[in-house]
Amino acid sequence: MSDIKCINGQIKIPGDKSISHRAAIISALTDDTVIISNFLFSDDCINTIEVLKKVGVDIKKIEDNLVVQGCGIENFMEPDDVLYVGNSGTTIRLMCGILSATNFFSVLAGDKSINSRPMSRIIDPLTCMGAKIAGRQHNTKAPVVISGNNGLKGMVFKSGISSAQVKSCLTLAGLYADSVTEIIQPSISRDHTERMLEYFGAKIKYDGMHTTVFPDNKLKGKNLYIPGDISSAAYFIVAGLILKASAVTIKNIGINPTRSRFIEVLKEMGADIEIKNPRMINNEHVGDIEARSSNLEGIKIQKDIIPNIIDEIPVLCVAAAFAEGSTVISGAEELRFKESDRIKSVSEQFRNAGVNIQEKEDGFIIKGNSSLKIKGGSFECFGDHRIAMSLAVLGLRSSEHFNINNFECVNTSFPSFKYELKKALGGKQ
Ligand code: S3P
Questions:
Q1: Separation of alpha carbons 99 and 78, rounded Å
Q2: Nearest CA to ligand 1 atom 15
Q3: pLDDT digits (tens, 9 = 90+) for 118-160
Q4: What is the distance between the alpha carbons of residues 275 and 288, in angstroms, rounded to a whole number?
Q5: DSSP string, 75-122
Q6: Which of 324, 259, 322 is nearest to 289 (CA)?
Q7: CB-facing half-sphere around the CA of 412: CA atoms within 13 A
Q8: What strand order describes the sheet that includes 141-147?
Q9: pLDDT tens-digit profile of 407-417?
Q10: Would strands 377-380 and 402-405 be described as parallel, antiparallel, or unpaired?
Q11: Class of domain 17-212
């Protein structure tokens, strides 16, 4: 094992997870055949495909594409088994919105992590729209049961949290409500659902914080290209910044403004990053990203931008560990409700690796140091793909044996992560 590692070259990042879920689900709601290229065939998105198949949607992988034969919600059928979503919060929350508009019985359940994550955030507003939906532990947890209803009502919903999954769930339900549905959130969250519905001709207005969906929509399916996932690119961007003599190029990445604040945050820290060739594909912003070794400085990150960087915070903590001075992340309590309690997971494991990190109720204080030496050992990712990949990037700055248990959970979002990393390291590990 060599002490000094560097990564170089072009990295191939798979399709965006959030957009892949939406592409499969929203295409199924049309009456058209939709060919989706660069779809992310990871565990989470495969669970969405399996759920759609169980409600009668004809959906197949043909060569590298996903081909969805849309049949419209009116032709969805009662599943004869539990709809298993695995580890996927996006699958369960978006599908609850849609299944609430059907007239049949369905049950959605997931793995241990999903069945412990908060579901009242969708069950309560869907109930206000007239859905017959219930969950374990007084309607707060999955499994979730939905029984056919006699039509949904539109409503104005002022949410206390900024969550794209909640907003998308209610927007999808709103497509089938009897009147306008308006969702208001405290700050901007990702708008992929709104963009795809707009691209398919839905009557919808949105600005990140407010989404208004009108009833009587006729969706027209069109073929889709899924841009590379910026949340997956994030691991290679940060690796390029914290390793000496490194430069990576990552092409065709989604740079939707509600997702790419992470790049601005890193630039504020002094990162040498460039976005080239910005363009629009299927109503989404796409660009090529270049990142090079950089001298980083700590910064303050506050609540208003947290939803825009939520999935990148664990790997931002890696950048912060090597940034001179303090990085303070606050207003990020939502991290406690992800695939693991990410505030706890990051704090514990990074501390074991020698990072000066303090756990706060709503974030972290990290005292960084550009010449920090990372200790080796055996690390836990708690079955959380983003913790596993963040630890892998942290471990690149260790000269000792650095082992991450249960690393296969990266298949949730990035099955080729190990392969791409090995290649970028020049075959060295
Ligand atoms: C997602 C939204 C975010 C994000 C998750 C994917 C989506 O969750 O953390 O990984 O696809 O809508 P919240 O809506 O719970 O913030």
A1: 10
A2: 163
A3: 999 999 999 999 999 999 999 999 999 999 877 999 999 999 9
A4: 6
A5: G----SS-EE-TT-HHHHHHHHHHHTTSSS-EEEE--TTGGGS--HHH
A6: 259
A7: 26
A8: 83-84, 106-109, 141-147, 132-135
A9: 999 999 999 99
A10: parallel
A11: alpha beta
Per-residue HEC secondary structure of 369-380 comes to CCCCCECCEEEE
Contact in structure between 26 and 97 (CB atoms under 8 Å): no
Is 288 part of the annotated catalytic residue set? no
| Residue tagged active-site, from 43, 44, 191, 311 | 311
Which two three-digit tokens encode residue 181? 């549905």
Report which ligand 1 atom has the smallest distance to the Cα of 310.
9
Comparing 8-15+227-424 with 17-212, is the CATH topology the same? yes
Amino acid of residue 311? D
Helices (H), 327-383: 342-352
Which residues sit with their C-beta closer than 6 Å to ligand 1?
18, 90, 163-165, 168, 190, 307, 310-311, 334
Tokens for 35, please give them. Answer: 């060919």
Peptide bond into 143 cis (omega under 30): yes
Residue with CA at minimum distance from ligand 1 atom 9: 311
- Residue keyed to tokens 């495969």: 46
Mean predicted lDDT score pLDDT of the chain: 97
Tell me which fold the domain 8-15+227-424 belongs to: UDP-n-acetylglucosamine1-carboxyvinyl-transferase; Chain (3.65.10)
Bridge partners of 11? 250
Contact 107, 83 (CB under 8 A): yes
Q: Which atom of ligand 1 is nearest to the CA of 22?
A: 11
* CA–CA distance, 293 with 411 (Å, rounded to integer): 28
Domain ranges of the chain: 8-15+227-424, 17-212
Which uninterrupted H or E stretch holds 235? helix 230-242
CB 30 within 8 A of CB 220: yes
Q: Whose CA is nearest to atom 10 of ligand 1?
A: 311
Residues whose CB is less than 8 angstroms from the CB of residue 132 and which lie 6 or more positions away in sequence, other chains included: 100, 146, 147, 148, 149
Alpha-carbon distance 321 to 368, whole Å?
4
Please indicate, yes or no, whether the overall pTM of this predicted structure exceeds 0.90. Answer: yes
pLDDT digits (tens, 9 = 90+) for 376-401: 999 999 999 999 999 999 999 999 99
Number of alpha carbons in the 13 Å side-chain half-sphere of residue 105: 3
Provide the token pair at 193. 């659902």
Do residues 281 and 321 make contact, with C-beta atoms less than 8 angstroms apart?
no
